[in-house]
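Today's session is about reading a structure prediction critically. Students often jump straight to the picture, but the first step is always the sequence itself: look for stretches that repeat, for charged clusters, for runs of hydrophobic residues. Only then move on to the predicted structure, which in these notes is written as discrete structure tokens rather than atom positions. Here is the chain we will use throughout the hour.
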Amino acid sequence: MFCSSAVLGDYQKFKLNDLCGVYTLQGNNNLYFSSENGAATGMTCNRTIPQGWEYFNWGVTGSIAVLSVDPIDNDKIFFKIYPNPANDSIIVRSLNYEPLSITVYDIYGRLILKTSTDGNNKSVDVNKIPTGIYLMNINSSNATGTVKFLKN
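Below is the predicted structure for this chain, in token form.
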């Protein structure tokens, strides 16, 4: 990544996605940063789905200064999923009736399916995916969460 801007604007922001220990960086264009050829040309934000070159280990080297921290209210729950484990479908329910973006990854971080809700409930069809453990990333305008689920 290269940045020569003196101020932090939308083009300098990115989202760190934690897929239970597998991290991706997503730019404001909703594309993922890739480290492929990053040493020669810098990391670019042009991948539509995360794969091997788009996964990162996360750590801090040197000194760090925290400029501001947005408080996180861990007592608020914005969505629920059930049943877990699932056989055919999982219901994703928005508790504040706002649209949700739903993305399912396998344990290797490969994109399995992507869908969204209009507001309240969404039945996510998992009937055709193989038995195993999956990660469901759920995003709303107020919250982001990753839920591990088992497909029977």
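Discussion point for the tutorial: Confidence is low (pLDDT under 50) at residues 60-75.
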